[in-house]
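Suppose you are handed a protein chain with no further information: no name, no annotation, nothing but its sequence. What can you learn? This example shows the usual starting point.
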Amino acid sequence: MTYDPSPEAVFNRIVPRFTASLLMCAIVESYASEQGARRTAMEAATDNADAMTEHLSLLYNRARQASITTEIIDIVSGASAQSN
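A reasonable first move is to predict its three-dimensional structure. Written in structure tokens, the prediction is:
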């Protein structure tokens, strides 16, 4: 039985294409993996920044409240000293 094209011609055409497709698949998979790693890193950075913002806001509000309380105590003490 004869085949047209010959098995060698088919083989010589398929092997380079198969090799190229394997290489392309590896490149695409590597790129997708890198993008996933970048996304994960950015998500972690965002979460850390949010936590830091919450913590700093809490510290700021406590300091502001302490300042307000101190001013109120000074005002009340001054008024109390004047009325006596």
